[in-house]
Every structure is written in C-alpha cells, then in structure tokens.
Amino acid sequence: LGFQFPSEFMGIRGLTTYLQENQRTLCNTLSLPSVSPVPLVVDGWSFIYEIHRNSGLPWVYGGEYESYHRLVSVVVNAWIKVGFRLYFVFDGAYPPLKFPTLSSRLSQSHIQPSLLFFRTSSISRGTHRFLSETRIIPPLSYTTCVEALQKIRRTTDALEIHFADEEGDPYAVELAGRVGGYVAGNDSDFVVLNANGYRGYVPLNELMWYSSATTLPVKEQSDHEFQTVRKPKATKKPTDDAIVGRGIIPPDVDDQLAVTFKVYNPDTLAAHLKIPSTLLPLLGALIGNDYSVSDKSQNIQSLFFDRGLSSTQRISRVAHIILTILSPIPQKRQKHKHQLGSVMDLIDRSVNALLPRSTTLNSNEIEKIVDKIVDATLQYAIPRSERSNHGSSNAWSTGACPLHEPEFCPLLPLISRNFEMINKEGNEELSNVIKIRNFYLDAYRNGQLSPKIMDILNSATFWPRLFLENPDIETVGRSIGRPLREWGYAVIHDAVGLPYTEVEDTELGGEEHDNSDDEIVDVVESDDESGEDLLAPLKGQLQLLHGSDEGGTEPPIRVPLIQQHSRMPTVTEYIRRGTRVAEEVVVFKPLRALLSSISVPELHRRTDISTPLLLWPREDRLTVFLQVLGSDILPVRALSSEQLTVALSLRWALRITHERAQVFPSKDQDNERWSRREAHCFLASFSWTNSPADETNHESEFPPISNRSIQLMAQTLSALESIEHLSQILLLSEIVPSPACLLSGRTFHRHLTNTLTVKEPDTLPLLWEACSHGLDGAFREERAKKAKKVKK
Questions:
Q1: How would you label 369-387 residue by residue, b for 16+ Cβ within 10 Å and e otherwise?
Q2: What's the confidence (pLDDT) of residue 341?
Q3: Residue 584 pairs with which residues in a beta bridge?
Q4: Which end of the chain is more exposed for a tag (fewer CB within 10 A), N or C?
C-alpha cells in the first residue's frame, strides 16, 4: 500500500481533492525539455517527504541516509538535465499561530504510529503493509537532504538553496514571482497564495517521465518557450507504454528523458469559483487551513459545516457565500455590487452566513471566531514588490535577505534583541552585537543554522524531532537531548537575546495596532476588473514587518524589548510525554554560570571576560564544546572531522545513560546502558566501514526488528541532532559536520542481530579508542542469550 504521511502537508482542507476532481478545468499540462531553463521553486519539506515516500527505503531501522543522499542527487540532477532551474526553499521558524496544528500533526504522524508499533506483535509489525501504514520520517532526513543539495550547488549554477525568513510557503511563492516561475510541492496553499509573476503550483506526485524517443502528447509552442499540452478531445493521450516513470524519482533508463507536469494557477481557480483571486486566502481560512485549527475542544469548521458534507461541497458552499455577499441577486436598475463597509464586514458576514441559524453562540464568541479567521487569512499576505528578476540568475535583493530590504526583513528582528537593548553610542558592546548578528545571519542563509534553532529565536520554543521509541519510558528528547539544549539556549540568549514569554500589553505598541484596524475600504464594484487586493486593509496590520503597500520609505516601528533581569529566561519545549505532545517550560542557567561549571583555560587567561563566547577564537569555542560533552581529550581531538561527531554522539549516550543508572539505580535505567559490542555495532553502521560491494549485496536484507535495537538507535539519533545543533549555535559546523549522510540504520540492526559481522578496518581502532577513553565503567556487561530448551 502506498503510504500518505498523515496530515503533513494539508494546506487548505479538501482543496487537493477538489483540484483532482476538477483537473480538466483547473490544470494545464506542460512538458520539458524546453528552449530555455524553466524556473521551479521547490518546497523543501514536500521534496523530502515525497522522495522518502517513493524511495522504498526502510524507515524502521532509523534511516538509510547514505541511500537517501544518493537519491536526492539523482532527482535534482535529472531535473536540471531536463531544463529546470531550481530554487529550493526550506521553512524558517514556525509561526505561533500554527502551534496547535503542529502538535496535532506530531501526535498523528509520529506518536500514534510509534505507540501502535510497540503495541503490535513482532510478527505483525514486521510485515510490509504494517510498516508502510505506520511510516515515520527518519529524523536526520533534513540534514541529509540539505547536505546533498549543497554538494550539487558547488558544481552548478542551476540550483539555489533558500532558507525562508519565516513560514516557507509565502516565501516560495514570492520568490517564484520574482523569477517568473512555478512552485512544486505537496501543499494546496500554493494554489491560494499569489504574487506578481507567479505561474502556478506543480504537485510533486503528478510528474510523468518519458523517453525522449517517445512521442509526447500534441503540444503547441507557448510564450514561455516550453511546450504546453493542448486539451482538445481529439488529442490522443499517451499510452501507459509510453510512460517510463511516474512521480518525483526519474526512471533508471539509458534514454534521454522528458518530463510532463501539471500546473494549477490561483487565477484559474478563482475564476472557476467566481470570486476574486485576492479572496482565495479568505476562502482557505473559512474552509480550514493550518492556521485556523484551534487547540480548544471545538473546531471552528465543525461549527460551519455539517459532518456529511464532502470537501468539494464545503469549498463550493464557501465560494457561493462569498460570491453572494459580493454580488447579491441583481435588480434591473442596479449597476453596482453591494457596497461593504470594509473587508472586515465581508469576513463578519461570511462567518455569520456559515454559522447555523440555530447557533447558541453569543456575540463575543462570534467575534472571536471572526478574529481567528482574520489571523488565518493574514498568514497568506505577501507584500507587493516592484522588483523583478525575470530571467536573472540570482534573485537576491541584498546580502542580508533574498527578497526584502534589510529594514523590512522579518528575520533580522529575531537576531537583534540585544541590539535593541544596548547603548548605540559606538561602543565596543555595540560592535560585538553587530558582529554576532551578522555571523548568525550568514550561518542561517548558508544552511549552517537549523530552522529548529530559529524557533528558539522567534518564539522561545523548541520542537525536538520525534521518532520511533518506547512509549513507556522517558523520551530521549528529554533524557539525551535536553542537557545539551540548555547550553544552546544559554549561548543564544547571551549572544543575541531570546524573547520573553510574558510581556505587558502596554509594551506591545497597542496604538499602532489600533490604528491599523480603523482603515476601511470599499469592496470592488461590479465594473472594476483591476484585480484590486481586497485584503489590503488586513495587510495593513503587517506593516510592522513589511511596511506600507504604498511604497513609503518609513521603516517599520520596532518596539524595544524590556529586559527583565529579575527572572530566569525560559524556553518551552514540545516533547513526547507518554502518548501525547506536551509543553515543558525549561528554565536554563545564564551562560556565565554554566561556563564556571566546566574547565575552560581560556576563561582564566582572559583579563576582559566580557567578550561574548561567539567572538572567542574558534579553537577556544571548540574547547568549550568538547568540555560540555565531557570529551576534551586527545584521542577525540585526533579524529577526522567526519568521525568526530560520531564519537561525540556515542560518548554522550554512554555517559548520560551511565549517569542516569547511577543516580536512579533500577532495572529500567540499567537497560538504557550500552554494552561494548553494541557500541562497536554503532561505529560499524557508517559507510566508512563498508565497501560499495558490501552495501549492494545486503540492500535487500531486512534484519529482525527488536525493541532494544530501536531504543539504542533512538538515543544516538537524539544525540546526533543535539550535538549538531550545539555545534551550529557555537558556529563550529564547518569543523564539526554532521555525519548523517554516512549512517545506515539497517546496517546497525544487522550488526546487532548478528546477520552481519562487525569489521574493523585500520581507522576503526583509533575511533574506538576515542569513544571508550575514560568510559570503561559506563558499559554494561554483555548478557548471554538464554539457550532454548531441547525437547526430550
């Protein structure tokens, strides 16, 4: 059975189904190769999931990252070869409005499958069908994908990688508008978002590959210099025999390939629904999108629609209501559409029209629903820009931001909190803050600062990646990852400042927000075909981020943050607690207090200890990093960069599990510890110990799945992620790179279950010495398996 990742790219509820049911009317089919490169902006996370879904790689062992890395390269190179110019876009920090949706998705796509796995018998859960239906994305897939893309980017100009200021969807569409291209993904939001120059949404799962020798469907040359498939009934469709591949992964054939893809354009959808394209975001908010999900017991959409209505019926009903409000039944002498006081009036009337007449909601409750719809609509706002890079090889606006001038870039305020709170009289402190801000900005734009870290900066939250683990014990996100994250939180807060979760309303610039609500415009009249943006008044509320739509030069008003030294800063972590996603507030110590707890000679050598840690020489920052991990020893320092993080991850897992067993002696805690043999198996799971022939010979083998092997892998995956993030926060990622693309979870399980013998090439003894040095007491004794009783 083909697996669909649960709710991971939902976008507008039911809109994907609606597009498929009305495909003949709503989509165009285009084909490549073309005369000139076709710009294609790719939603990074849609790409990651779609490749994993189509790859057939086993997920249950923890991830086949070397094979995944190879597949990413194959797909991207094939796309470039047929004529795409690619712009990959990855999400930045999660908007707080989306937190309820994220929590729900994590529970549905990670925690529930993990619970089902551990509650199912070993025989049943090992079947192909069960594993397909409970699939969880391996946690290091993002790191592996970005590394593969960066490797390709170093060899071609046909690929750019972008890391969005905030949510990736609006950024992708705005970028597509700048370069005159399409957006490829698995999110129906891309047929609602719109920008000047944007050509439309390409679903990744609807690509079709042909041999260049195959006669494609009849086409006509378009203005865009590539072929557009005609739609007349007389046109013959290609037979299945002509198609050599479907989906995102190109077929492995010797022939030159061609590809066809479907395009859905927002203007076409709006015309089909008979509403202005600028009101598609409102339609999406009313139907239900990722921002209108409530964490309360009652969902807004459950108030709007009968449970028996299909997604198509819901979309048609909302579109009809909007159309009716804009243009009531015309009278013979009536020349103009109904005049509305403001777009807020339109939203208010739409909400009231959708609510059942027998509703028991009072006016305050209805007003809250209207506010929720407004917030969900505003998330689609894309500021207008007169800039255009059509035909340009580079879409960057400035060195700080690809799309925005620095004063309007949403990213800069996230790394400027300390800048807002210091004296700007040209002192050394100001210079240091600016340097650190630039370091973090460059690191993020170059993919060396994870979006997970941007969540800390944006909302003082952290979302550890969840994977398969025993639901009956403490999550590794807390036991293995949190001690390292607390160091990361302290470094970030000292370097650029974190947002405080509690700020008085009077400090949030209330007057500015009040004024924006007073702006009122009339809805477009019947004879006006200018395509005026009906949501412009709502977008006025975003002036703090993007500035005026009128092109004014005044920068947005930045509200200075009040530093509250009287209380400790906190970060809210969203982790697994039992069988649900729960919030846990983490109070962390100041960096200076943490530094005093480790042995850092640099601190004793300094006469001026006020220099921020991130401005220390790299060797000194590396010393702090290794000291935090309890691994500042010569055998570790002697390792190659690709082996360093592997050794640090294993040492961290050994150390933490041993300390926990010492503090809380119990059978469960002792079971968390590693044996020497298990540690050897982990080191042998990386590709430096396997020849290509070995890997090819064993790719079809699926070792037994044991609970212990799964839990050991969960520990190391959490350690790898946490160490990667800490190295990025300390600006050490170039000398402490992630080894994710070398790891094979299946090989780890094969070693553990004795289906593959551990080999020790020349490099492994040195690696083992680094991993075990000083940790002899951390290993548990290897337990002999009970011999089966022989029947007499």
A1: bbebbbbbbbbbbbbebee
A2: 55
A3: 573
A4: C
Give the C-alpha distances (Å, rounded to integers) separating 406 from 8, 411, 503, 546, 555. Answer: 32, 9, 26, 10, 10
In a domain, 243, yes or no: yes
* Total domains, the chain: 3
- C-beta contacts of 393-402 below 8 A and 24+ residues apart: 393/157, 394/160, 395/87, 395/160, 395/175, 395/178, 395/179, 400/441, 401/165, 402/162, 402/175
Check whether residue 294 and residue 368 sit in a common domain: yes
Q: What is d(CA 118, CA 431) in angstroms, rounded to the nearest whole number?
A: 54
pLDDT at 505 over 90: no
Give one word for 416, left, alpha or beta, with left for phi > 0 and alpha for psi -120 to 50: alpha
Query: In the chain, helix, strand, coil percent, each to 5?
Result: 50, 10, 40
Residues 6 or more apart whose CB falls under 8 angstroms from that of 206 comprise: 261, 262
Domain that holds residue 149: 29-55+65-95+140-261
Q: Is 14 contained in some domain?
A: no
In angstroms, the CA 114 to CA 136 distance is 8
Task: Tell me how far apart the alpha carbons of residues 209 and 791 are, in angstroms, rounded to a whole number.
Answer: 59
For residue 589, the number of C-alpha atoms closer than 13 Å in the C-beta half-sphere is 11
* Residue of 216, 213, 175 lying closest to 193 (CA atoms): 175
pLDDT at 11: 79
Which residue type, as a one-letter code, is found at position 274?
Answer: K
Q: Are residues 211 and 306 in the same domain?
A: no
**Residue 587, SS3?**
strand
What is the C-alpha to C-alpha distance for residues 785 and 788, in angstroms, rounded to an integer?
A: 9
- Res 523 pLDDT > 90: no
The radius of gyration of the chain from alpha carbons, rounded to an integer in Å, stands at 28
Contact 486, 759 (CB under 8 A): no
HEC-encoded secondary structure of 95-137: CHHHHHHHHHHHHHHHHHHHHHHHCCCHHHHCCHHHHHHCCCC
Q: So what's the pLDDT on residue 533?
A: 56
Mean pLDDT of 519-526: 36
With a cut of 60, say whether residue 566 has pLDDT above it.
Answer: no
Residues 748, 663 share a domain = yes
- Which of 542, 202, 531 has its CA nearest to residue 404? 542
What average pLDDT does the segment 676-700 reach?
Answer: 73
Judged against a pLDDT cut of 60, whether residue 790 lies above it is answered with no
Q: What percent of the chain has pLDDT over 90?
A: 54
36-40, 93-97, 184-188, 607-611: range with lowest mean pLDDT: 607-611
Last residue of a domain, one of 211, 238, 261: 261
- Crossing angle for the helix pair 707-729 and 618-628, nearest 10 degrees? 150
Last residue of a domain, one of 378, 413, 442: 378
The whole-angstrom separation of Cα 190 and Cα 315 is 16
Same domain, 180 and 326: no
* Four-point Cα dihedral 109, 110, 115, 121, nearest 10: 80
Helix (H, G, I), strand (E, B) or coil at 438: helix
pLDDT for 189-220, tens place per residue? Answer: 999 999 999 999 999 999 999 987 654 544 44
164 in Cβ contact with 90 (< 8 Å): yes
pTM: 0.85
**Three-class SS string for 651-675?**
HHHHHHHHHHHHHCCCHHHHHCCCE
What letter represents residue 188's amino acid? S
Residue type, 172: A
Together in a domain, 630 and 652: yes
Say whether both 318 and 369 belong to one domain. Answer: yes
What CATH number does residue 165 fall under? 3.40.50
> Is there a contact between 635 and 763 (Cβ–Cβ < 8 Å)?
no
- With a CB cutoff of 8 Å and minimum separation 6, the contacts of 351 are 286, 366, 369, 370, 373
**761 within domain boundaries:** yes
Residues 447 and 371 placed together within one structural domain of the fold: no
